[in-house]
Amino acid sequence: VQLQASGGGLVQSGGSLRLSCAASGLTFSIYTMGWFRQAPGKEREFVARIMWSGSSIDYADSVKGRFTISRDNAKNTVYLQMNNLKPEDTAIYYCAGARLQFKPNKSQYDYWGQGTQVTVSS
What we know:
Number of helices: 0
Helix content: under 10%
Radius of gyration: 13 Å
Distance between the termini: 37 Å
Low-confidence stretches: none
Number of strands: 11
Order of helices and strands: EEEEEEEEEEE
């Protein structure tokens, strides 16, 4: 199983980025997919998740109204559109997959990607 995150980079405050996470080696359509992030010196925190059918989506309060998670089961890919980025969004962003889990917590994810760095300058 491989989760390959991409799309990170350096952006100014107020800018946008779109992260992608391509999955292989698993039946993508039965996995709840999540995005997490970890800033230096901090624990990895939840950002957003989307159920396998796309019928249920949740966001951390800190990103509601600015970030949008989506998935394309035909392409085995989950996305995170990030708008109005702030310096406090600076972190390594990780995607993760949880098989047939309804609203899994961090410990219930089966697979993790390698992360992609997002840096927001003020």
